[in-house]
Design goal:
The chain is an all-alpha fold. The protein contains ten helices and no strands. Helix 2 runs parallel beside helix 10.
Length: 227
């Protein structure tokens, strides 16, 4: 396959990814809305639409900036197909993005290339399927394993799973890009130490630290100091 054929194939792939992704997102959003509305209709317990509208506006004001920033930060890293899958299935920063990055490193692809787009889509798709299977098994085993999960001996371990996961992931990427990571890392560490209540806003602060890292990378690139 020559370069022209590769370009034409990728254009067809890109167009189909956008078409299927938009249809899938639309169906997913409608299903998410249909489930509670259907239950309310069957049980005769519909929401107070005025209160719903007021609550929606208050929440939207907080999250619209986060939604835009997540798209601007994650979409270029994931590519079109993986972005559609990721934004409908969730768990971006702690599952889908690490899977895509790891797959990219294994295959040796670069961000922004057709190969990376395809590899990211495959990795996120497999991750989503595995997540569904694990969740289904977890629900089925929840009752039999309840005595084990509620054992006081294991409770400290469950409370440290997320920090351990992010710590292991962070060390891998920080060690490779120490010049870029050190300032956001120190800034966020000091910020959380001085204001522990900000931990509740960690999803927004992740985007802020990402913006800082992008700015530092751009500065180092312009100065010719980026390896």
């Amino acid at each position: 396959m020559n370069e022209i054929e590769k370009k034409e194939f990728y254009e067809r792939y890109e167009n189909s990814a956008h078409r299927i992704g938009r249809i899938g997102l639309t169906i997913g959003i409608l299903l998410l809305l249909a489930a509670p509305l259907a239950m309310g209709w069957v049980l005769g317990a519909g929401p107070d639409w005025k209160a719903f509208g007021m609550g929606f506006v208050q929440v939207a004001v907080i999250y619209w900036t986060s939604g835009i920033m997540e798209f601007l930060v994650y979409a270029p890293m994931l590519g079109s197909g993986a972005s559609y899958l990721t934004f409908i299935t969730g768990n971006i920063i702690n599952l889908k993005l690490p899977c895509a990055v790891n797959a990219r490193e294994i295959c040796g692809t670069e961000v922004g290339t057709p190969e990376n787009d395809i590899i990211s889509t495959l990795s996120v798709a497999v991750s989503s399927l595995v997540t569904v299977v694990i969740l289904a098994l977890g629900v089925l085993c929840l009752v039999p394993l309840r005595p084990v999960l509620e054992n006081p001996v294991l409770e400290p371990a469950f409370n440290t799973v997320i920090p351990a996961l992010f710590g292991a992931l962070a060390f891998k990427y920080f060690s490779k890009n120490l010049k870029i990571a050190v300032i956001p890392l120190v800034f966020m560490s000091v910020l959380f130490i001085l204001a522990p209540s900000l931990i509740a806003n960690v999803s927004f602060l992740i985007l802020l630290s990402g913006a800082m890292a992008i700015g530092i990378a751009w500065y180092l690139f312009k100065k010719g100091r980026l390896d």
